[in-house]
Amino acid sequence: MSNTFYITTPIYYVNAEPHLGHAYTTIVADVLDRFYKLTGAETFFLTGTDEHGDKIVAAAEKAGQSPEEYVDRISQLFRSLWPKLNIGNDYFVRTTDPQHKETVKYILQRVKENGDIYFSEYEGLYCFGCERFYTERELVEGKCPDHQTEPQPIKEANYFFRMSKYQDWLVDYIHQHPDFIRPKRYRNEVLSFLNEPLEDLCISRPKSRLHWGITLPFDENFVTYVWFDALINYVSALGYPDGGLFKRFWPVAQHIIAKDILKPHGIYWPCMLKSAGIEPYQHLNVHGYWNVDEGKMSKSLGNVVRPLELADVYGLDAFRYFLLRDMVFGLDSEFNEQALVARINADLANDLGNLVSRSLTMIQKYFKGVLPDPGVPEGTDEAVKDQALALIDQYESLMKELGFHKALMAVWELIGGLNKYIDTMAPWVLAKSDRERLATVMHHIFEGLRTISVLIWPFMPESAEKIQQQLGLARKGSEIQLNDLRRWGEERPVRPIIKAPALFPRIESKKPEGFPGGKGLAKEGRGTGETGKKGAEKKMDRISLEDFQKLDLRVAVIKEAEPIPGSKKLIKLTVDAGDERTVVAGLKGHYSEQDLMGKQVLLLANLEPVKLMGVESRGMVLAAEDDTGIHLIVPDRETVPGSSVK
Ligand code: ME8
Question: Is the CB–ligand 1 distance for residue 11 below 6 Å?
Answer without folding.
Answer: yes
